From TrEMBL:
<protein>
    <submittedName>
        <fullName>MFS transporter</fullName>
    </submittedName>
</protein>
<feature type="transmembrane region" description="Helical">
    <location>
        <begin position="264"/>
        <end position="282"/>
    </location>
</feature>
<dbReference type="InterPro" id="IPR020846">
    <property type="entry name" value="MFS_dom"/>
</dbReference>
<feature type="transmembrane region" description="Helical">
    <location>
        <begin position="234"/>
        <end position="252"/>
    </location>
</feature>
<dbReference type="InterPro" id="IPR036259">
    <property type="entry name" value="MFS_trans_sf"/>
</dbReference>
<dbReference type="InterPro" id="IPR011701">
    <property type="entry name" value="MFS"/>
</dbReference>
<dbReference type="GO" id="GO:0022857">
    <property type="term" value="F:transmembrane transporter activity"/>
</dbReference>
<feature type="transmembrane region" description="Helical">
    <location>
        <begin position="204"/>
        <end position="228"/>
    </location>
</feature>
<keyword id="KW-1133">Transmembrane helix</keyword>
<feature type="transmembrane region" description="Helical">
    <location>
        <begin position="329"/>
        <end position="351"/>
    </location>
</feature>
<feature type="transmembrane region" description="Helical">
    <location>
        <begin position="40"/>
        <end position="61"/>
    </location>
</feature>
<keyword id="KW-0812">Transmembrane</keyword>
<feature type="transmembrane region" description="Helical">
    <location>
        <begin position="140"/>
        <end position="159"/>
    </location>
</feature>
<feature type="transmembrane region" description="Helical">
    <location>
        <begin position="288"/>
        <end position="308"/>
    </location>
</feature>
<feature type="transmembrane region" description="Helical">
    <location>
        <begin position="98"/>
        <end position="119"/>
    </location>
</feature>
<feature type="domain" description="Major facilitator superfamily (MFS) profile">
    <location>
        <begin position="7"/>
        <end position="395"/>
    </location>
</feature>
<feature type="transmembrane region" description="Helical">
    <location>
        <begin position="357"/>
        <end position="376"/>
    </location>
</feature>
Length: 395
């Protein structure tokens, strides 16, 4: 194994362990809420503290890697992932969960600010798309794997401090040992701007809004679904549903890459509400098979068609402002990952989980139909008309 190959996989290992910690506690959300005397609304607020950590880092400190280098940020993110796990191990309640998710948000933001650039530098001479694909694969696997590991440990023995916590701490410590040995070839620029304000090119908003819908759905599965499954004594399987709704989207990414961005986005917007309907019906009726099939379909949309279709579209529109346009794209995504989830949790406390799931489904269906219509009828014809002019400008 040559050094370049070894270094790239070392970074991928570190990134996977950073994101593995993010949803490690997901199957225990209901237990934390019960221990704290709160319901779905408070759980959703604690869950959304992750966004309060990640967004300021991505926007206000997006250029920090150019000042301090790549490796220190990855090491700091790994340290924060371990500290977050320790906090929920000592204090298994919603307050500790909110604090832990805030730290994990900061860590993920730091890693996201440099991961693709660092991977590209380590894979010297390689295809930049290969570097991006490796980052996407390792982080997507981690986001789902943490919840799945906790579910597996809970099936064997229920505990608010399952063995998956100690496994994450051990592997993250190992990852720190690997990352600290990686080269850091980027040139430091002490005057690099930290602030990276979002930018929205003409025609990009429908693609960004499609990510809001996608991540709202995945956030609902992670934060709200465990309490619904608990009513049918299926809460120990909630980690598997989290793994399915996040990590299985990787299976559909090769297909999505072969499609034009508008077509990929359109397919995702058709699949998403149908998959959610199956998932919500399964959760309300205690059908684990329906939940997992619905989660698989939602994952194909959220992390396959909509993610890659939208990212490809806005990248093509970005010109020389790719970093700022990407920041705008993920701003919408993280708003979806927090605000709709909190609102749904509050509705669940006030009117019951079934009503909350129905209202979210209606909003998702309307949002998907309107966004899909705008993409197909408004955005894509303009993009085709501008393509020849853009091509001549590039030459």
């Amino acid at each position: 194994m040559n050094a370049q190959y070894r270094h790239s996989w070392g970074l991928a290992f570190g990134l996977c362990l950073i994101t593995l910690a993010v949803n490690l506690q997901a199957p225990l959300y209901t237990a934390y809420a019960q221990a704290s005397g709160h319901g779905a609304g408070a759980t959703a607020v604690a869950f959304s503290c992750y966004v309060l950590g990640v967004l300021p880092v991505l926007l206000a400190f997006g250029g920090i890697a150019d000042r301090v280098g790549r490796r220190p940020l990855i090491l700091l993110a790994l340290g924060l992932s371990m500290l977050a796990t320790v906090v929920t191990s000592i204090w298994p309640n919603l307050i500790a969960l909110g604090l832990a998710r805030l730290m994990m948000g900061v860590g993920t933001g730091l890693a996201s600010a440099t991961a693709t650039a660092y991977m590209t530098e380590l894979m010297t001479g390689g295809d930049t798309r290969a570097a991006a694909n490796r980052v996407t694969a390792s982080t997507s696997l981690g986001f789902g794997l943490g919840a799945a590991l906790t579910s597996l440990f809970l099936i064997v023995q229920h505990s608010v401090v399952p063995g998956s916590f100690w496994l994450q701490l051990t592997l993250a410590a190992l990852a720190m040992g690997v990352v600290v040995r990686l080269p850091d070839p980027a040139t430091r620029n002490s005057h690099a701007p930290l602030l990276r304000l979002p930018l929205f090119p003409a025609g990009s908003l429908p693609y960004s809004f499609s990510m809001l819908l996608a991540w709202a759905t995945s956030g609902l599965v992670i934060a709200i679904l465990p309490s619904v499954l608990a009513a049918h004594a299926l809460q120990q399987w909630s980690g598997l549903s989290t793994f399915t709704v996040i990590s299985c989207g990787l299976l559909f990414q090769p297909w999505a890459r072969r499609l034009p961005p508008a077509r990929a986005t359109g397919i995702g917007l058709l699949v998403l509400p149908v998959s959610y309907a199956l998932l919500a019906w399964g959760a309300s009726n205690g059908s684990l098979l329906a939940v997992l099939l619905g989660a698989l379909g939602a994952s194909s949309a959220c992390y396959g068609f909509l993610y890659l279709g939208g990212l490809s579209a806005i990248t093509a529109m970005a010109g020389l402002e790719k970093a700022r346009v990407s920041a705008g794209f993920f701003l919408f995504a993280y708003i979806g990952f927090s605000l709709p989830v909190v609102v749904t949790g509050v509705v669940a406390d006030a009117f019951g989980a079934d009503m909350a799931l129905i209202l979210f489904g209606v909003a998702l269906m309307v949002g998907s139909l309107v966004t899909g219509w705008v993409v197909v009828r408004k955005v894509e014809p303009v993009a085709r008309a501008l393509a020849p002019a853009q091509l001549s400008d590039n030459h």
